[in-house]
Amino acid sequence: MAAKTALQVVVTGGAGQIAYSLIPLIARGLVFGAETRVNLRLLDIPPSAMALEGVAMEIQDSLFLTVLDGVIATTDEAKAFEGAQVAILLGGFPRRPGMERGDLIGKNAGIMKRMGEALERYASRNCKVVVVANPAPTNCIVLASHAPSIPRKNISCLSRLDHDRMVGMLLHEANRCLAEASGSVGNGTLGGVSDGGGGGGSRRRLGQADIRGVCVWGNHSNSQVPDASAVEFFVDGRWTPAASVIRDAAWLTLSSNAHERFDADGEAVLGLAEAVRGRGAAVLGARKLSSAMSAANAIAGHLSDWLVRPSAPAAPGLSAAAPAAPGAPQIVSMGVASDGNPFGVPEGLFCSFPVRCLGDGEWSFAEGFLLKEEAGHQLSLSVQELQEEKAMVLDALGGDASVQPPPSPRGGGGAAVGAVATLAKASGVRSNGTPISSL
Amino acid sequence: MAAKTALQVVVTGGAGQIAYSLIPLIARGLVFGAETRVNLRLLDIPPSAMALEGVAMEIQDSLFLTVLDGVIATTDEAKAFEGAQVAILLGGFPRRPGMERGDLIGKNAGIMKRMGEALERYASRNCKVVVVANPAPTNCIVLASHAPSIPRKNISCLSRLDHDRMVGMLLHEANRCLAEASGSVGNGTLGGVSDGGGGGGSRRRLGQADIRGVCVWGNHSNSQVPDASAVEFFVDGRWTPAASVIRDAAWLTLSSNAHERFDADGEAVLGLAEAVRGRGAAVLGARKLSSAMSAANAIAGHLSDWLVRPSAPAAPGLSAAAPAAPGAPQIVSMGVASDGNPFGVPEGLFCSFPVRCLGDGEWSFAEGFLLKEEAGHQLSLSVQELQEEKAMVLDALGGDASVQPPPSPRGGGGAAVGAVATLAKASGVRSNGTPISSL
Predict the structure, then answer these.
(1) Are B148 and B208 members of one domain?
(2) Which residues of A are catalytic?
(3) How many CB pairs under 8 A join A and B?
(4) Residue B259 catalytic?
(5) Residue A103 — pLDDT band, cuts 50, 70, 90?
């Protein structure tokens, strides 16, 4: 019976905007694979019960019967989490105008405590979790501490949207530079997406398989560290450092004051790091709605790389439309427990790192990545913010002693690193490392 | 160069909600096929330019580079329609509270006149068009009359959402009855989507490949005719009339007063036709937002069946997760020009009919369908409404003589029907036909 093998997936905030963009991706087999039947449980709070019912109607009307084995739309946590094998936590308390950051963190800590308890009580012991609700890494701390039976390595938060934004901007800029260099300038287009129809050159546009070494480290906040120091593009048959492709090298650096460029209208062009950090606000400002489509897309990527994809991204240099060929394991930015990380981040936090997805739910820290001086410095500031948030959470939950790193972390990384250095030390020791080609 | 072969697709109302759900489907190759590169032009009106820019940002952030060859987000009709090979017209004037139907039709006629002129002036002569903006069939009349170079057979409107809603409800009810009959009652779930995890029986659930004979005829309005008289399910290895599977036979009939059933809470269960007609309002009432997800899904189905799919729906009786096998050509409800239809609908209108999609942009009327007494009667009322709307459009556009059926319709159906009978006559002649198994 199909129901016996269906994957049990719970989505909280099921009536929200991100869920609305994510559900069709799940229901068309784009997250867990076309061969995996899914039993989808949509959870939301009672005031959203009607809206949730509307979503369930639309799911029926979309005839998603090939992948969806069943749908439960409910406000009952027990029903939603019972036997859950994957939990996608979108539901949180949004920041209201005038709200203090501490209040926001406290409100969401309460929600995450409930979610953690529900996981502990009802979910599969091997449930895989991605937290999207903000403050995502700190929410993971609360969640993990209230779901002690769930391995900490199974709990993650989304930094993939930041990662994908950075990849998109890097590809856009690299393609612009390559087109300019070869004399085929594409039509300028609104939003910066290049128009393949313009220009007369025949240079192949770089795609997702033609970039590596991207990482957004740290907190999912303005302190995030979009580190391009190890980025390489696959150009003319070989991996080439980003600074050799993108002529405005200062655009790539993390120190925003190093960058000065003006566009055709005389407006200052943001440096890469600043643009990545400000992207969510830019989309919100333009749409007056948050970036649900790209968030859902990033969640799909995060989960499919982690849980499904058998270490086979498209080989570089192929035309973008060509089928994927075996390649190096997927390395992406992922918010995970810091326990056992080789980058010097203290234990007991959740933080975005470069992570190697090994497929089938396994991952390890991508130990080939080196933290260069500026990235190390900025990461230490972001980690400081994570520690402050952790303190606020402890405060909000009444100093609950359970919100502590476990005495013996179960989730040690795959990297063969002995004693974990402090970040400050690592940052000093590892600075000025050169990008290596086997990243 | 890839750009030379990319499909040029324009989406109007590009900053709207349906576009927001549709873009990821296009950009992931789910509409025009994974092998077809797409140059996407998003058009909206100047007040939506910022929002459109936000959407373009999110497209870049979603790394849709495998399928998307380029994206243009613009408020300039010339740029959007230049060389367009597919036009998806979502943009229209929404009905405001207190607005008369005639006003709504007039406002949208003005928009469609512009769209028709843009098609005529800029688009490929073989551009395929689907109109989603309401009143969709009447909008097609205006559009076609202002784009005389575009074959009328290339212009369609969406009735697929109504069709899919009907399919979803029929499958749900059939599965409920089959489960009850075999003693394995699934858990009741919010929104009526069955929960495959419940029940102890081993009966295979019917999927999309296990139903045929569905058609929603007429206008895309409350006068639509969700006709289940020819519906059959593939049960126990053979095609079985719907009334032999669904025990509440009155639920299937078009005359709503024939149906009386009450659910567990004592509330009257709507008959199928009434439920299909009221579904849009039900979703709107529940979500407080229109049914963008399921509309986008229906548009994807409409276009891929029409333009891409090589007549190969999944073979019936296979497990829903099994790969599709060659089968009968896809028959779906589609709003098309009535010219040459074998069902007795007068020429010069656009109307939803059962249509056989032959792939690669070809379709023919599904002449195997018979109009039974009640469906024929209701269709004549819906056609009367279409004629009234046409008159309103003529009025709104100042009696523009060009809004007339062309003297010699280019878009005759594929059915080998001689003289086209009037609907009244056809309805009489064809009534009481029995469903035939080769539908």
Answers:
(1) no
(2) 220
(3) 274
(4) no
(5) confident
In chain B, which stretches have pLDDT less than 50?
1-3, 186-201, 311-313, 318-327, 401, 405-439
- Comparing alpha-carbon positions, the chain A residue that sits nearest to B189 is A72
CA nearest B129: which of B110, B107, B147?
A: B147
- Where in the sequence is the domain holding A21, given as residue range(s)? 2-157
Boundary of a domain, candidates B111, B130, B157: B157
Regarding whether B68 and B191 lie in a shared domain, the answer is no
Supply the CATH number for residue A242's domain. Answer: 3.90.110.10
Peptide bond into A135 cis (omega under 30): yes
| CB-CB contact of A48 with A15 (8 Å) | yes
Rounded Cα distance between B364 and B367, Å, is 8
**Three-class SS state of A217:** strand
Contacts A52 to B, Cβ<8 Å: 190-191
Does residue A436 share a domain with residue A297? yes
Task: Give dist(CA A391, CA A395) in Å, integer.
Answer: 6
Q: Which residue has the higher pLDDT, A320 or B9?
A: B9
Number of structural domains found in chain B: 2
Using a CB-CB cut-off of 8 Å, the residues of chain B touching A207 are: 65-66
DSSP assignment of B362-375 equals EEEE-TT----HHH
Q: Mark yes or no for CB contact A321/B191 under 8 Å.
A: no
A96 CA to chain B: closest CA distance, Å? 21
**CATH code of A32's domain:** 3.40.50.720
And the tokens for A238?
A: 């070989």
* End residue of a domain, out of A157, A177, A199: A157
Q: Is B384 buried (19+), middle (13-18) or exposed (0-12) by CB count in 10 A? A: middle
If you measure CA to CA, which chain A residue comes closest to B279?
A57
Same domain, yes or no, for B284 and B399? Answer: yes
Instruction: Tell me the chain B residues in contact with residue A171 when contact means C-beta distances shorter than 8 Å.
Output: 63, 65
Same domain as A198, residue A316? yes
How close, in Å, is residue A280 to chain B by CA atoms? 9
C-beta of residue A224 within 8 angstroms of C-beta of residue A216: yes
Taking only the tens place, the pLDDT of each residue in A279-311 is 999 999 999 999 999 999 999 999 999 999 664
Tell me: the pLDDT tens digits for B2-48?
Answer: 345 899 999 999 999 999 999 999 999 999 999 999 999 999 999 99
Per annotation, catalytic residue among B163, B220, B259, B302: B220
Angle, helices B17-27 vs A17-27, to 10°: value is 30
Question: Does one domain contain both B71 and B172?
Answer: no
Residue B56 has its nearest CB partner, among A54, A190, A298, at: A190
The verdict on A293 and A394 lying in the same domain is yes
Read off the pLDDT of residues A45-78 as tens digits, 9 standing for 90 and up: 999 999 999 999 999 999 999 999 999 999 999 9
CA distance, residue A431 to nearest chain B CA (Å)? 30
Same domain, B218 and B358: yes
Buried b (16+ CB within 10 A) or exposed e, A109-120: bebbbebbebbb
Option in B50, B63, B294 nearest A286 (CB): B50
